[in-house]
Amino acid sequence: MSKADVVVIGGGIVGAAVARELSRYQLDIVLLEAETDIAMGTSKANSAILHAGFDAKPTCWKARLNVLGNALYRQLQDELKLHIGWTGSLVVAKDPVDMAVLEELLVRGQQNGVNGLALLGRDEVLAREPNLASDITGALWAPTAGIICPFGATFAFAENAIRNGATLLRETPALDIVVENGRVAGVRTPQGVINTKFVVNAAGVRADDIARLAGDESFTIQARKGEYILFDRSVRNLVNSVIFPAPSKISKGILIAPTVHGNLFIGPDAQNIDDKTDIAATGNGMDRVITGARRLVPNLPLQAAITQFSGLRATAEDGDFILRESEAARGLVHAAGIQSPGLTAAPAIAQVVSALLKEAGLKLSEKRDFNPANPLKPAFQELSWEQRSSLIASNPLYGRVICRCETVTEAEIVAAIHSPCGARTVDGVKRRVRAGSGRCQGGFCGPRVTAILARELNIPMTEVRKDSIDSRLFFDKLPGNCEVPAHE
Ligand SMILES: Cc1cc2nc3c(=O)[nH]c(=O)nc-3n(C[C@H](O)[C@H](O)[C@H](O)COP(=O)(O)OP(=O)(O)OC[C@H]3O[C@@H](n4cnc5c(N)ncnc54)[C@H](O)[C@@H]3O)c2cc1C
């Protein structure tokens, strides 16, 4: 790839949504991702909530784009086949100070244009959520909040962009931005320079480093880590909606929420960190998360915890999104400082970025054959016995269950590998079809998924990676041509 109309740097939810938005037009679009896969930065580890939009002050990007993004997801849900549950959310109060915060949030939400907000009394809250702490005094109910699969959404945006002609280059970091006479002229990658006049900076916590490559020192990004604990499906019914405490100045607080896949999680805490690669789960983080969540639900079923994870918020100095053309390098548009509610706002951010590119001189001519829809991919686990039998009759690989915890078949894994922006790593398979997401966390299916990847990608097992570039699973003494081990 030696030239493009637009290069989008960063394959998180924002870069993928931008690529998809731009794929409506007659443009050569390249989406660059440094890692082995897209959705490996903040977009893989967050609270997965489609926020209603009452948190941010009305004058900022966050407020406007949260409410618009939430509305856009309602339309995109069918088009892109997104996994969304419109559960609503409750911000609960425990004392008069918290109640005053809820009243402020109610007014702010109404100013932001959030529909259906209501203050509920204690009895009404406990009728909806019987497992909440008995000392709560009331809550702010937001019916438009929802839950989503964040990596599924990132894959869906990217897949649709690719179906509409965009090119995804993985393991291809932007090493430099070529600037000539104050204008962007190209992006240097390990494979050479991609000549382009327009670049979108959607590099998450690295967005300030990307800006610096173009000589733009106008902002810095502070990484703020948040840790989580994920619970087994067996305790999914502990809460029915997303439950927040009254928020603090720096975070929405430690919450408890169901996931679209039927699990439950608690978190995140909020710790500023210097190392932008540090996503380790820590003992102290776990303690903070458990203490915070117990204030909401005292009887936490800790025995049902199956894993921990953490994500990094990309925090800008003034706390708002940075959406503008760079003054140092014309044609470079920043989508930076995209902390929460960036997942919710992503489709709206994509529209703003597209408008900024147009203002910067990019010609946007609509494509007549733009197809906004992705095809439906059946999840074997969710089908009736009749539907399963008919799939097995059409393709016997549906009859081989590789992940026992989540009932994921070999046919689904093979399809995930060969789809546009297909899986190349064991965790890439996990994030697309959930093999390895269950109670055993890949203890059983991990080697089988590895062997299927080796076979389908035609590489030796020793070349298969768990997730990141340096995460090979096997070394030496393995046959080059591995087959999936037969079932016992
Ligand atoms: C703890 C936590 C909880 C959150 N909860 C919510 C929530 O419930 N709801 C919500 O709406 N939002 C939430 N957010 C925010 C949301 O997750 C982010 O706003 C969103 O994921 C940011 O997406 P992004 O595409 O900007 O960044 P990322 O997903 O980080 O993507 C950036 C990508 O750029 C790539 N990259 C970096 N450098 C280069 C380079 N040189 N070349 C090529 N590629 C590069 C990275 O590898 C990465 O894949 C939360 C965030 C955190 C951390």
Automatic annotation (TrEMBL):
InterPro entries, alphabetized: BFD-like_2Fe2S-bd_dom, BFD-like_2Fe2S-bd_dom_sf, FAD-dep_OxRdtase, FAD/NAD-bd_sf, G3P_Oxidase/Oxidoreductase
Domain BFD-like [2Fe-2S]-binding: 401-455
Domain of life: Bacteria
Signal peptide: none
SUPFAM superfamilies on file: FAD/NAD(P)-binding domain
Domain FAD dependent oxidoreductase: 5-355
Protein name: FAD/NAD(P)-binding oxidoreductase
Organism: Anaerosporomusa subterranea
